[in-house]
């Protein structure tokens, strides 16, 4: 039996960074269609109740559990104490929901939410001092998360200071392997020009959470040619579900299935639901994963 479980992110139904995308889709519709599509896990979106008892009352009858939840860090630009305060609140919530990891991303200097900033031309680059603040802060946060039964999974992300292979390598080399773990996102790696299989193979023992998303080739080329922002590229349809684009998601999934990996595969594709029906694409991804991995 595979030790991999399959979840999906609500961002295909309603977008956290651009709430107008999917504003018409309700929380109840989202989680009902997730369950109907064959998923057993969900990440957290902005329409989800934050009271654990209330959220359980919606998820439990549908056979859904919380895989994790995005947590923004500002270790490079703000005092550590500010980040820790919000982080503790997130840990308490995730513990109450039965999660095993907390997804973190360094948002200091991030351009991912800027609608007019070219994603490739103005990517932030950390100074050596900022790298030290980031890596030291991550190890402190790992110690904070441990009593809650949580490990931190760092999300490399387009438009941030940890996006490229070189930057991922530096983060991994500069942090304690027993404290700081990695989230692998197939879509963000290919968007950036990296090789998901290379990162997956290199850091297989430190990857504790996987986001499965695909990239549409023509829209990626358009993002380069038109110097689009990250959000502009999303609006244009650069992301899609596994099996619908140019990313060899099947090989990445097979690598994990044949390993000792225990955790979630989370389907994630930031799309405009008016153009890409969320239920249709969730079902499409579920079928693709079943056919290629047996999961």
TrEMBL record:
Protein name stated in the entry: Myo-inosose-2 dehydratase
One annotated GO biological process: inositol catabolic process
Keywords from the named record: Cobalt, Lyase, Manganese
Domain of life of the native organism: Bacteria
Record's signal peptide: none
Any one Gene Ontology molecular-function term assigned to this protein's record: myo-inosose-2 dehydratase activity
Domain Xylose isomerase-like TIM barrel span(s) in chain numbering: 36-277
Database matches in InterPro entries: IolE, IolE/MocC, IolE/XylAMocC-like, Xyl_isomerase-like_sf, Xyl_isomerase-like_TIM-brl
Gene name of the record: iolE
């Amino acid at each position: 039996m595979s030790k991999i479980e399959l979840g999906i992110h609500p961002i295909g139904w309603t977008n956290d960074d651009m709430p107008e995308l999917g504003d018409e889709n309700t929380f109840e519709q989202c989680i009902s269609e997730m369950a109907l599509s064959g998923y057993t896990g969900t990440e957290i979106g902005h329409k989800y109740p934050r009271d654990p008892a209330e959220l359980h009352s919606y998820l439990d009858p549908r056979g859904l559990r919380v895989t994790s939840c995005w947590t923004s860090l500002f270790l490079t630009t703000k005092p550590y104490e500010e980040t820790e305060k919000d982080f503790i609140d997130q840990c308490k919530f995730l513990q109450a929901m039965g999660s095993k990891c907390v997804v973190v991303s360094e948002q200091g200097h991030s351009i991912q939410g800027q609608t007019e900033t070219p994603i490739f031309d103005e990517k932030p680059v950390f100074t050596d001092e900022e790298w030290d603040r980031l890596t030291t802060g991550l190890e402190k946060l790992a110690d904070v998360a441990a009593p809650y039964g949580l490990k931190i999974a760092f999300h490399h992300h387009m438009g941030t200071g940890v996006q490229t292979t070189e930057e991922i390598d530096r983060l991994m080399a500069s942090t304690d392997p027993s404290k700081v773990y990695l989230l692998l996102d197939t879509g963000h790696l290919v968007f950036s020009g990296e090789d998901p299989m290379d990162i997956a193979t290199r850091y297989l023992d430190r990857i504790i959470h996987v986001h499965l998303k695909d990239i549409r080739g023509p829209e990626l080329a358009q993002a380069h040619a038109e110097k689009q922002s990250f959000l502009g590229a999303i609006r244009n349809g650069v992301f899609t579900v596994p099996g619908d684009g140019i990313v060899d998601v099947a090989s990445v999934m097979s690598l994990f299935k044949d390993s000792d990996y225990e955790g979630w595969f989370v389907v994630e594709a930031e799309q405009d639901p008016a153009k890409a029906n969320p239920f249709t694409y969730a079902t499409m991804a579920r079928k693709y994963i079943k056919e290629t991995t047996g999961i």
